[in-house]
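task queued by scheduler; priority normal; single chain, no ligands, no partner chains; default sampling; output format set to structure tokens
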Amino acid sequence: MKLFRCLFAFAMAILITLPVVSCAKDGGKTSDVNKTSAEATSQNAPSEAVSAKMTAAVTDSGVAALVNGKPILMSAVETAVKNTALRMGGSKISTETLMGQIGPRILDQLVSGELLYQEATKEGFKASKEKVSTSFDKLAGQYPARDAFDAEMVKRGFTEESLRGNIARQITIQDFIDKTIVAGISVSEDEAKKNYNDHPDSFKKKEQVRASHILINVAKDASREEKGKALARANEIAKKAREKGADFAALAKEKSEGPSGPSGGDLGFFGRGKMVKPFEDAAFGMKVGEISDPVLTQFGYHVIKVTDRKKARVVPFGEVKDKIISNLKNSKINTAISNEIKKLTGQADIKILFKPTPQPGLSPHSGGLPGLPPGHPSSKK
């Protein structure tokens, strides 16, 4: 349900502060099935469906929109905007400017969430007090003390009551989606196999090496004498590293001036194009266990040891089957949710009373909005 949670991160303002909800993609190379999911999201984006019904007007009533007569307050939009700024590491941009830049997109998400919430309650779904309390306590428990949690709530624009209300709405919508949409969606192994066969390039793993290094820093404006001293140090380290029984990791912890020094200089596995060219060329040209002569990059002199290597290969279907099935199911769920919103929008009376002053910079369609799935019109870079 990751895509659903991401899609409505703004509608459920609590998701902005709920660490247990993640919108991050899995590490490593993704297959074209993720692209398929993204395209489905783009084509069925709630913004398109909702916007088709929106009637813009200006109001000073404090109401941003009416959804079947139910108000969405400007304060809710402002809270989500402020939390978006916090998620982006804080912002020096004024709230008014941010409202003009991303307010319409956030309001669009809130409208979509309200539509789903109304339908969920109409169908008899309601979050129990026990579920709300459990979620609230789990969230509070992730802070070192209750005072810290209370301070974070204030920072995010919530009271305990409003936070519990947001959690209740989230749970209500989630239960509705789970039981009316997700329960009827499945992906067969044959579908997964077809996706695997249709996108062979997506399952090719390029050659990778694992290397450790010891870095001797060289300043950009270093004199010839300083560079010579750094090279001499690097040569001495390379000599020690080649001695019988030498512990490269221990030597890196002692001598390296790079950030990986404390971890023994280990850089993990990497493919071509991930490191600066001189370093890459040296590492990929070495055998496992080999130690290089000092390699000069813009960072300084590196003494490199290759510790492992993975040959290029095609990942067998068995290794990726579960991931493909999960991605295909998420794609179907995402499309079904978007279609549900389109249907509800067509049946709803939606009035948009918030008309911001257009602002340059980050906009609903320029990308970079947190909480939207990859490929969504508002998450494309």
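post-processing summary
- Confidence is low (pLDDT under 50) at residues 1-59, 362-381.
- Strands lie at 63-67, 70-73, 204-205, 208-217, 266-270, 295-297, 300-310, 313-314, 350-352.
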